[in-house]
Write a structure and sequence with these properties.
The chain contains ten helices and nine strands. By secondary structure, it is of the alpha/beta class.
């Protein structure tokens, strides 16, 4: 996939599993369980031991997956992940050099931001989507709704505190997708030999996003992978 296709698929799926694990093997097992649930988008954080190698291995194993790198704090790490095959780069914070690196290499980038000023700065610098982190600590879906009112052109991906119980609220508030951690990426299920718990959670999140988007457009008959309709706004204002 090219960059445009990667971004479109992320928005269509609407769920980004944030994979944190204690070992390479555990991370790969988590990914296998997530994919079995129908989620092809995967974010491997740099906190996973051997994360760059995990990305390389996942790209080799799963040609149909969109593998990204998370917790990327600098352009050097971004470049290493991209060389390993990462198709999108995510950061918990705003680093302009990392955005520039990804733009130079034509790779989708999702920097983290929290305040309206940071979000606009990230978007103006060339972010393809903006990770709002930690969204839960700022009031959850109501914060996203407040941001989208004056900034409808900016694609927001709330992360931090997103659960199966509240994911629908974020989508209804206008989020392009949601980043989900422990409520989906349950490493305990892998350790206890119950990967099906992760698989079931993946399916459940897909269902929640689908229903939230259908609710946003009453009477719409949508495919589970269909993105929510968006108001087209000139980013230059």
């Amino acid at each position: 996939m090219n960059k445009t296709e990667v971004i479109q698929t992320i928005k269509e799926i609407g769920v980004i599993p944030v994979v944190r694990a204690s070992s390479e093997e555990e991370a790969i097992s988590v990914v296998e369980a997530i994919k079995a649930g129908g989620l092809p988008v995967l974010e491997i954080t740099m906190t996973v031991p051997g994360a760059v190698h995990v990305i390389e291995e996942l790209v080799r194993r799963f040609a149909d997956a969109i593998v990204g790198a998370g917790t990327v704090l600098d352009p050097e790490t971004a470049r290493a992940c991209i060389l390993a095959g990462a198709q999108f780069i995510v950061s918990p914070a705003l680093n302009l050099e990392t955005i520039a690196c990804c733009r130079e290499l034509d790779i989708a980038v999702m920097p983290g931001a929290l305040s309206p000023s940071e979000i606009v700065q990230a978007w103006s610098a060339g972010a393809d989507l903006v990770k709002v982190f930690p969204a839960g600590a700022m009031g959850g879906a109501s914060y996203i709704k407040s941001l989208k009112a004056p900034l409808p052109q900016i694609e927001l991906v709330p992360t931090g505190g997103v659960t199966l119980a509240n994911a629908h609220g974020f989508i209804e508030a206008g989020a392009a997708a949601v980043g989900v951690g422990t409520d989906l990426v349950d490493t305990g299920a892998i350790r206890s030999g119950q990967p099906e718990k992760i698989t079931q959670a993946a399916r459940a999140f897909i269902g929640v996003v689908r229903k939230a988007r259908m609710k946003s457009v009453p009477g719409a008959d949508r495919d589970p992978r269909a993105g929510s309709p968006r108001r087209v706004v000139d980013a230059t204002g």
